[in-house]
Amino acid sequence: MRKLFYMLPLAAIAWLSSCQEQPLTTFGDDHYIYFDKYYVDEKEPGKHTADSTFASFFFLSDDVDAVDAALLVHMAGRNLTKDETFKLRVVPEGTTATPDEYKLEDTYTFRARATEANATNRTDTILIKMYRRPRLKDLPKGVRLMVELVPEGGLLLGQTERTRAVVILTRDAIKPAWWNTEVKELLMGEYSPRKYKLFVMHIDPTASFNEEMLKDTPWKARQLVQKFKEWLGKHPDKAVEEDGTPITVNV
């Protein structure tokens, strides 16, 4: 086997070496930017699926009318020697949000910061301001904003499947998977967005009530619901649904 290896042409040996998967390198002077999440399923090698960034008013009081959606942006290449700017452009065919429901800055900045010599990319965070409008309460799935990167100066576009990003803005949280028939009948009662919001804001701010708690320490789950029942009794003016119906639990 060793003899056979030595008989291989040098070109073939080089080809075999090049077939091994290599991490991104920082060689060259080009800088490529791309979002952290894929807006469509990855084509090659096809291991990553499309994902969105969610922003919600669920954990905020009802008088808050704006929330930031945070997007992670990566850059492949050497460390920047100076800050570089880029823009975002709305993709109309992927957007249901109206212009008054979001605000894009004129430019965004990828900051020049030192990073480890063997790093495969650099990361920065940008914020898109999203606004609450009256129609949001009638849209359970929220509104959708798709943006794409527009590089400037010394920046170039990176991986195609990550040149765009999708932001979903909702008023309410999606009904938790653990709120099943058993939880409804024995603990929390019928699900409603307002009931869940009051429970999280005043009783369970860390959202510890979940499938694991129900399975491993159901007595803790019951204690939380009992505390919620006490809170509802002490705050009858707040313990109502949007239509004025009293909020109740089944403990």
Automatic annotation (TrEMBL):
PROSITE patterns: PROKAR_LIPOPROTEIN (PS51257). InterPro entries: DUF4843 (IPR032299). Pfam families: DUF4843 (PF16132). Residues 1-21 form the signal peptide. Keywords: Signal. This is Uncharacterized protein DUF4843. It comes from Hoylesella shahii DSM 15611 = JCM 12083.
